[in-house]
Design a protein that fits this description.
The structure is a homodimer of 315-residue chains. Chain A has 315 residues and is mainly α. The first copy, chain A, is built from 15 helices and two strands. Chain A has a single domain, classed as Farnesyl Diphosphate Synthase (Orthogonal Bundle). Chains A and B meet through helix 3, helix 7, helix 8 and helix 9 of A and helix 3, helix 7, helix 8 and helix 9 of B.
Chain lengths: 315, 315
């Protein structure tokens, strides 16, 4: 067996789906493929000199990644029997926002990272100006997709999606979290500060992903609150595991540089709790997350499996 | 009389309202003041390390500028007796998008401009990373404002605003126009190519400004089309005059560097038509623009005056 055969991800970067539970692995693969088709259609290439920004938007969003956020949209929407087309468009819009944030975060003035999903980050594959514009274009397009009647027939639902995503992605959410992450105060954060940073920078989009299902399904408060609680826990566990992978993992496995946090002197969950303590904390949080989904019974089983996957992932 | 008294703009950059017609001057000042109050409220400062991005968002949007785009929203909305609060929020959202585009355009990787509205551009007053995030935050917040029920009671109207702004600001509009503007093909554009670039980079937001009035007012097709035609003309005249000011004006008058187009070897209206030819073309277009507003009678007089002001402005 050749090296390429023994590692199915080697040709296109690391395999993002290594080690999930069997049913979940198939569901994640199906969702990732469907989201990619949706993104490919929503970001159709155009001719002329402006075509370059579309090329970069496609490069940044079609290239790889676990598609965990759109998967959460699909699974949370399924709890309320939302038509899959609505959930897919919403998931694709969210993925555009996630991908724009990676493009801007990787810029030399920000995290200065040349590697993403096992290949050149957007500003290396294109140039800085194009990467900035591609990020801007993806963010803008995401809101256009959500506001389109194809996403949901009820305009109130579409407006609620736009408002929730703007809140999650903006200065009270992801953008604010990134601001904290690059601030001088970053190195000295205590555990509560790290949690707050995480809930803004990473957690806000996870929360939107699950909230979106409830919005699309016009869910009642109890169901919505259960999903929001689950998402908050999931985002926190995700970030703790991210810190562990950065401390313990290899660049080859992750498709991006490791050891960055320590090199930059960033306060992390691992730094505060130690490797074992951080892993125990993540386990506890995932257990809580799963318990929150009890009201959905068997319908929530893939979401619960996702939480366990987040804990056990190696990339 | 002191120098400061003879030039009311000297303390805070050039006076953006020099030379408009008397009634228009007052209306522009009133609108600019109201939009600033609205922006100040929508972008309230926050505590903590994430507060820095809000500071930069406020710096970039409260600092100056003619507020011509929100003024066009207010005036086009007035044609349909839209409540002023709705128009003001929409105008403020549009101004956030305009200001984000200036912040990102000024970045070293883009136009590398250190001066904006007569003072340091955002990445000089803060730093590049903060400027990138502030732009992202402004763009994101704009969509949140439009989707909020405070902007209009009808969710269909709010969704139409979000969709129209996403279209105008995205890769088919402003972002695509900026991509062309920094492309290698830029230097060789012919007159049609320059017009197309302009209609995307500058025209799209002017068009949205007038379209927004029609959307808020749920206007009939004829009124909407008249406004869209007016906006297209206005944007084109605005850009021709911008080229003339870049070729003829002073940095002191404009509050930003001049002679940039020639230095960068960019094809411009002035380069294609000559100074006199470009001025004649702008005059002709403004006359057309005013004719399109005849269906609104006296109610359109300030919009017509705005078109003449765009032609006669010196900054």
């Amino acid at each position: 067996m050749s090296a390429a055969q023994s590692d199915p991800g080697s040709a296109s970067g690391p395999d993002p789906l290594r080690n999930p539970l069997p049913d979940l692995a198939q569901a994640l693969r199906d969702a990732a493929a469907a989201v990619k088709v949706e993104l490919d259609q929503l970001l159709a290439p155009v001719a002329g000199p402006q075509g370059r920004v579309l090329e970069a938007m496609r490069y940044a969003s079609l290239g790889g990644g676990k598609r965990l956020r759109p998967f959460l949209v699909l699974e949370s929407a399924r709890l309320f029997d939302v038509p899959r087309a609505s959930a897919l468009r919403t998931g694709a819009a969210l993925e555009m926002v996630h991908c724009y944030s990676l493009v801007h975060d990787d810029l030399p003035a920000m995290d200065n990272s040349d590697l993403r999903h096992g290949r050149a980050s957007a500003h290396k594959a294109f140039d800085e100006a194009t990467a900035i514009l591609a990020g801007d274009g993806l963010l803008t397009r995401a809101f256009g997709v959500l506001a389109d009647p194809d996403t949901h027939p009820d305009a109130k639902v579409r407006c609620a999606l736009v408002a929730a995503l703007a809140h999650a992605a903006g200065s009270d959410g992801m953008v604010g979290g990134q601001m904290i992450d690059i601030s001088p105060e970053r190195a000295q954060l205590d555990l509560d500060g790290i949690k707050r940073l995480q809930s803004m920078k990473t957690g806000a989009l996870f929360t939107f992903a699950c909230e979106a299902g409830a919005i699309l399904g016009q869910a009642e408060a109890a169901a919505r609150d259960a999903l929001l609680g689950f998402a908050g826990d999931l985002g926190l566990a995700f970030q703790i595991v991210d810190d562990l992978l950065d401390a313990e993992g290899s660049a080859e496995d992750l498709g991006k540089p490791t050891g960055q946090d320590e090199a930059l002197g960033k306060a992390t969950f691992v730094g505060q709790l130690g490797n074992e303590g951080a892993r125990a904390e993540a386990s506890r949080i995932v257990k809580d997350a799963c318990a929150r989904l009890e009201i959905f019974g068997k319908k929530g089983s893939l979401l619960r499996a996702t939480a366990r996957f987040v804990l056990e992932r190696r990339s």
